[in-house]
Specification:
Helix 1 crosses helix 2. The strands form 8 sheets. The chain has a 4-stranded antiparallel beta sheet with strand order 3-2-1-32. Strands 4-5-6-7 form a 4-stranded antiparallel beta sheet, with no helix packed on it. It has helices at 293-300, 302-308, 332-335; strands spanning 4-8, 14-20, 23-26, 36-40, 47-52, 56-60, 63-64, 83-86, 92-98, 103-109, 115-121, 124-128, 134-139, 142-147, 153-157, 167-168, 175-181, 184-190, 197-202, 206-210, 217-222, 230-235, 240-246, 248-251, 257-263, 271-277, 282-285, 289-291, 318-325, 341-346, 352-358, 361-364. It starts with a strand and ends in an 8-residue tail after the last strand. A hairpin with a 5-residue loop joins strand 1 (4-8) and strand 2 (14-20). With 372 residues, the chain is mostly beta strands. It is 5% helix and 48% strand.
């Protein structure tokens, strides 16, 4: 399907784009006047977003998502009232909503009149199984799997580490997470119904991702136990791919390349996106920029938002973010967010389409994946 893109503006409006003749064009009549954290249901061009006023609720295609309304509006973070993530096949939507005391995780099957409550706690980091029939949830130190067809609930780990999302292989159904044992971080790998085994061990925190299209598990290793900066990206087998310091990384959907975000150390919060092939060879880079506030949130929890709000297009050609380059103004904390713009990078030609639209966040559309 034609690559699509939703841009959420600093003032809470959403603009839709699609590729036309090698560039991105606005889709007339698809504007959303009031919306935050918009994303696309896989296999469609339909948008899901948070509507925020005196009350807050998730909307899909303009219709309320059952069970998502809070009145008055309750927030997970500034400008963030819900975390919503569609299953790979687009059949189900999981979402996190605050209830005033805790965070509640619910699942809504598209077309049904009610949502199902799965669990409550804080923080909650869900990830879909490849089939879309099960949901893995990292809740505190527990990693659980919820079987949505049978209703069964099982605990995979009571020692899950960090505020991170488990990695799920959309092709084979493998799952990986980190446990803390004996003062070290152990990377565990298994399946939702099978026995897990340790595949790597580190002295610092990690984030995990399978290289798309393969069973190769990649591990970003923090520079120290307390750090959110990573010094190395390697495979679980020990092969080094990238050297830091970097703060996040995203594999292209076809697994052919990976983009990492490196601090520029200019003192004003700028980061440089750098592109590498699957073996870790440098390809090209974008000039440093300051991420917009919502984009900065997604960068901080990139393993979570990479599942729900992709910065890569489904064809692995385009990468985009929102913020401001050197000539586009100071950080939003000094001059407001009005100068923040969405930009899209053609990773094949190296051309950048700047100032696509006022933007604090963006999300590309996703192809529907029927796995498991």
């Amino acid at each position: 399907m034609t690559p699509t893109l939703l841009v959420t503006g600093p003032s809470g409006s959403v603009t839709s784009f699609e590729v036309q003749e090698e560039s991105w064009a606005r889709i007339p009549g698809r504007e959303i006047e009031s919306g935050y954290w918009a994303s696309v249901r896989p296999g469609t061009s339909d948008a899901t977003w948070s509507s925020v006023g005196s009350a807050a609720e998730l909307l899909h295609g303009g219709a309320p998502v059952p069970g998502s309304r809070t009145e008055p509006a309750l927030f997970l973070a500034p400008r963030l009232t819900h975390y919503a993530n569609w299953s790979p096949d687009g059949r189900r939507l999981c979402y996190v909503v605050p209830d005033g005391q805790s965070l509640v995780l619910k699942v809504w099957t598209y077309g049904e009149s009610d949502a199902r409550t799965l669990t409550a706690g804080a923080p909650l980091f869900p990830a879909w199984d490849a089939s879309g029939d099960a949901l893995f949830v990292h809740n505190g130190s527990s990693l659980q799997v919820f079987e949505l067809v049978s209703g069964e609930q099982r605990t995979l780990s009571d020692a899950a580490a960090g505020f991170r999302t488990p990695a799920v292989n959309k092709k084979s159904g493998l799952i990986a997470w980190a446990d803390v044992r004996d003062g070290a971080v152990e990377v565990m790998q298994g399946t939702r119904r099978g026995v897990a085994e340790r595949v790597a061990r580190f002295s610092s925190g990690v984030t995990l991702a399978f290289r798309p299209g393969t069973d190769e598990l990649t591990v970003a290793v923090a520079t120290s136990p307390e750090s959110s900066v990573f010094g190395d990206l390697c495979t679980a087998a020990g092969r080094s791919l990238l050297k830091g310091p970097f703060v996040s990384y995203w594999w292209a959907p076809d697994g052919s390349k990976v983009l990492a975000l490196y601090p520029s150390y200019t003192g004003d919060g700028r980061f440089q996106p750098r592109l590498f092939d699957a073996e870790g060879n440098f390809l090209r880079a974008v000039e440093p920029f300051i991420p917009a506030p919502d984009t900065a949130t997604a960068v901080g929890f990139y393993d979570q938002y990479g599942l729900s709000h992709p910065f890569w297009s489904s064809d692995s050609r385009w990468f985009g973010m929102a913020g401001r380059f050197l000539t586009e103004g100071p950080p939003a904390s000094f001059g407001g967010g009005d100068a923040d713009q969405a930009w899209v990078w053609d990773t094949v030609s190296g051309a950048i389409e700047r100032r696509l639209a006022p933007g604090s966040m963006l999300a590309f559309g996703r192809d529907a994946v029927n796995g498991g």
